[in-house]
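Sample intake sheet
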Amino acid sequence: MIATYINAVAVIAGALIGLLLRRAIADRFRDVVTSGIGVITLVLGFRLGFESQQIVYLALSVAIGGLLGEWWKIEQGVTGLGAALHRLLWRRETQAEAAADSRRGFAVAFLNASVLFCVGAMTLVGSFRAGVDGDYELILTKSVLDGFMAVLLTAAMGIGVAFASLVILVYQGGLTLLSRVLQPLVSAELMAELSAVGGVLIVMIGINLLGLRQLKTANFLPAFAVMAALMAVHPLAFL
């Protein structure tokens, strides 16, 4: 777990630096940062997505997962959690409209950062290496990358990014603790396909950051479970 703690601290530190930059730069420069982050996010997402060797399963996972997420209103729940955190920490805001906009921005930053920091291959593989072999190298490398990304994301979107560290602690830490139990069930092929699903979600974040369209990214989170189920029955298709 020590590597996960370091990862969370790196995100918080990066977010604090990004907050200073956000206050120091004008809005027009902030737009430049947001656009740059959007393009970088697209590149990261496409790179992960191209790892898929089961493109039909990837399409089915995203489609079915998106329908389930819309049905269960996952995006609404995650942004609601972000808004609740904001209300808990900033209770003294008095102007209703300004407070609502602030909560929305906080929640969106929290959501995008949480997905970006937790759906990649480095999270999955790094957690298993840390839990099974005590090898922290990949998670520590991820910590450095997440810290730099937190600086840029916070400069573009606000302090909500810092609270993605809570998701890192719960999700990445949970994977690390359960890695010995889950290892026999997780193959290298499954890792690649789950990473590809994560890549699709990261592409969606990039589209949102660039303002091309506002996609409900969190609603597609069930795609991971759908992909795992498809890969579990995949060998049976050849019997």
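Comment: The first helix runs from residue 2 to 24. The mean pLDDT is 86.
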